Amino acid sequence: MSQARPISRRALLFGRSDGESPVSPGRARPATSPSTLRPPWALRGTAFANACTGCVACVDACPERVLVLRKGKAVFEPERGECTFCHACVDACAPGALRDDGVQPPWTYRASVDEACLGAQGVVCASCREICPQSAIRIPPAGRGAAHIDSDGCNGCGACVSVCPATAIHLHASVETAA
Ligand code: SF4
Ligand code: SF4
User: Which domain CATH number covers 87?
Assistant: First the structure.
């Protein structure tokens, strides 16, 4: 018997779907390159790639639909939306590739803005600031410069990535390496 899979109201509204293709026509844009960002609380170093069996339990459990399988391993795609750190993927990961020891943060990803930011072209835009749950983004007034992200406040949730109309925001890892 097929079982209804959890999906958040936000993911539903944004038209996030499952599978390998990045989502929602007319909403989220395709990633410029396939994501190599790991799911939250992934094991560090080569341990994650060794432990992840590609069972897709985390992909199925994620109510935000931000996890997909790439080359047999789970990855986080911020182009699909934000991670709310709900823990559902960790709870679903039987092989233990995602593991929360209660001490380590879910990841060290942080967002950064490149020169494509509309503010850098003199255009007023505050889409990223408005969606950031951490209030980590500052926008210079009247289109007088690019958005600025406070890396101490940013938790790498990725909410700002998918809303940027200029595809100017990217997440990068400061500790993790590609799986
Ligand atoms: S913590 Fe929750 S929202 Fe984040 S990737 Fe895991 S299941 Fe999805
Ligand atoms: S990735 Fe960082 S800056 Fe972007 S919305 Fe999340 S907390 Fe805010």
Answer: 3.30.70.20
Task: Tell me whether residue 140 is in a domain.
Answer: yes
Range of the domain at 48: 9-172
Q: Is 8 in the pocket of ligand 1 (CB under 6 A)?
A: no
27-44: string of b/e by CB count within 10 Å (b at 16+)? ebeeeeeebebbbbbbbe
Determine the atom of ligand 1 nearest the C-alpha atom of 85: 1
pTM, rounded to two decimals: 0.84
User: What would the pLDDT profile of 52-104 be if each residue is shown by its tens digit?
Assistant: 999 999 999 999 999 999 999 999 999 999 999 999 999 999 999 999 999 99
pLDDT at position 79:
95
Total of domains in the chain: 1
